[in-house]
Design goal:
Blueprint: H1 7-20, E1 25-26, H2 29-36, E2 49-51, H3 56-69, E3 73-76, E4 95-98, E5 105-109, E6 114-118, H4 123-132, E7 135-136, H5 149-154, H6 162-165, E8 172-178, E9 184-187, H7 201-204, E10 213-220, E11 222-223, E12 227-235, H8 238-252, E13 256-263, H9 264-273, E14 287-295, H10 301-315, E15 319-324, H11 328-339, H12 341-346, E16 351-352, E17 355-357, H13 363-377, E18 382-388, E19 393-399, H14 406-410, H15 413-428, H16 443-449, H17 452-465
Helix pairs in contact: 1-3, 8-10, 13-15
The protein binds flavin-adenine dinucleotide (FAD).
Length: 477
């Protein structure tokens, strides 16, 4: 591979600059800086240049030049990914390919319930465009004001609507991709049925930029909900939460869109440390679930159905108490409690994080086993679990034992990760990364837990599509 200073590389960089024009690149250190750091400061890379093409043809031209000159390409969207996948390595030989200028909504077809967007469109703009057409684009997550759809698809993002609508993978009908050799694959089809061989688009979704650059997508739209019922429910324990989910789905059909678990520690922390949060109950309970149900019908019947299920669950002893949101503002307040949990946890000292998934039916057993395992590994450590229990996805975070030195606790990050991931994978056949991907953060663990067969298949796919290994090198594999 050419080194940065070699003439062929310099010539290639000059040709890239010509291909994208003066607005399409920078190598000024100050202007490049935001593209080089992971937002939690975990990784800080270097690059020859940040390139910002404005069309698929420009992306293709840039990638082709890079392929010929042996220059690594690191695609980047909003740089909100928390796995270190979007930042270049410290070698400094790569270019960052930012998709931010490819931000056009190409088409919206209400009768086909689809929207066609370029990779750099910010997620919130897609939601707004769908709403203007009286439709819903259901992907929703904390970073939606700055993350971009190309990044969402490349990480197969999850968020709060997965229970009902699936993750990003389930929301895509077609893709346009620039391949590592610079060819364009036009798979922008808006079809709900297409059994013509391998489903290639799924290869690129969740590939974290290691197989090509997503430049556009056809996304599915849904009817816009007319009624939303939000309630905070105190449950007997985690088993009861999972049973309640099943009852709720049975009693209200497909209406359950959110089902988020939190513990007493989470509720207490949020109420104590975060302004604007108050415990909605007069009594303390061990576990809570935030429920959101939506319906395309007008207000009325849904609330009755949810109340009916909760009353039955109260009689059975699964539910101990419940508070309904009687206004949008109150619903916002209830969601706010859930949303501030990561922030609230910071007040409890050092935090070691896990983003794991197990089958929904095993969530309670998993939490009990993981609690026992971490207590054995570090007496006094405080599990701070919360998350999308309806998807089996738990942010199984750990807060330091009271009085322990924060740095000493954080030095145990890898060891405690192994303890928790051993339970997840070995006992529950679960996933060590439910939402955020592998990037750099979980690369070692991926190698540790995936079977040789699975790793071999992944390496062969990578080698088939990117034989020179120039697409986001060092990420995932
Ligand atoms: C406050 C907050 C809340 C969050 N909540 C959630 C959540 O609930 N669920 C969830 O899943 N994530 C969540 N995230 C993580 C993050 O927002 C998602 O991973 C998001 O999908 C990343 O999009 P991005 O545009 O920022 O991608 P980036 O961070 O720029 O990139 C992510 C990865 O995708 C690759 N990539 C980016 N664009 C392309 C492209 N066009 N083609 C090929 N590869 C590309 C990059 O190389 C990198 O590997 C959250 C993050 C924050 C900061």
């Amino acid at each position: 591979m050419n080194r940065p200073t070699e003439p062929p590389v310099r010539d290639a960089l000059r040709r890239i600059q010509e291909a994208v024009g003066p607005k399409g690149w920078t190598d000024a250190p100050d202007a490049m800086e935001p593209y080089l750091v992971e937002q939690r400061g975990l990784y800080h890379g270097r690059a020859q240049m940040v390139v910002r093409p404005e069309s698929t043809a420009q992306v293709a031209a840039v990638v082709k030049i890079c392929a010929e000159a042996g220059i690594p390409v690191v695609p980047q969207g909003g740089n909100t990914g928390l796995a270190g996948g979007g930042v270049p390595s410290a070698r400094g030989d790569a270019i960052v390919l930012s998709l931010g200028r490819m931000n056009r909504i190409r088409a919206l077809d209400p009768l086909n319930d689809t929207i066609t967007v370029e990779a750099g469109v910010v997620l919130q703009r897609i939601q707004e465009a769908a709403a203007e057409a009286d439709r819903l684009f259901p992907l929703s997550l904390g970073a939606e004001g700055s993350c971009m759809i190309g990044g969402n698809l490349s990480t197969n993002a999850g968020g709060t609507g997965v229970l009902r609508y699936g993750n990003a993978r389930a929301l895509v009908l077609g893709l346009e991709v620039v391949l590592p050799d610079g060819r364009i694959w036009d798979g922008l089809r808006g079809l709900r049925k297409d059994n013509t061989g391998y489903d290639l688009k799924q290869l690129f979704i969740g590939a974290e930029g290691t197989l090509g650059v997503i430049t556009a997508a056809v996304l599915r739209l849904f009817p816009r909900p007319r009624d939303v019922v939000t309630a905070m429910v105190a449950v007997r324990d985690v088993h009861a939460a999972v049973e309640l989910l099943s009852l709720l789905r049975g009693g209200t059909g497909e209406s359950v869109t959110g089902f988020e678990l939190m513990t007493r520690m989470g509720m207490e922390s949020a109420a104590r440390h975060i302004e604007g949060v108050a415990d909605p109950f007069d009594k303390a309970y061990g576990y809570y679930v935030l429920i959101e149900c939506t319906s395309a019908h007008g207000p009325g019947p849904l609330r009755g159905a949810v109340e009916g299920v909760l009353e039955d669950a109260l009689t059975e002893g699964l539910v101990l108490d419940a508070v309904f949101a009687d206004s949008r503002a109150r619903a916002r307040q209830l969601w706010y409690i859930r949303e501030v949990l990561p922030e609230a946890q910071k007040f409890e000292g050092g935090s070691i994080k896990h983003d794991v998934a197990v089958p929904v039916s095993r969530v309670a057993d998993f939490i009990a086993d993981a609690n026992a395992a971490v207590e054995a590994a570090m007496p006094g450590v405080r599990p701070f679990a919360f998350g999308h229990v309806g998807d089996g996805n738990i942010h199984y975070n750990l807060s330091q034992p009271p009085g322990m030195d924060k740095d000493a606790f954080l030095a145990e990050w890898q060891r405690l990760n192994r303890v928790v991931h051993d339970v997840v994978v070995r006992k529950y056949k679960g996933s060590i990364s439910a939402e955020h991907g592998i990037g750099l953060v979980r690369r070692t663990d991926l190698g540790h837990y995936k079977s040789e067969v699975e790793l071999d298949l992944m390496r062969k796919v990578k080698a088939a599509l990117d034989p020179k290994g120039l697409m986001n090198p060092g990420k995932i594999l």
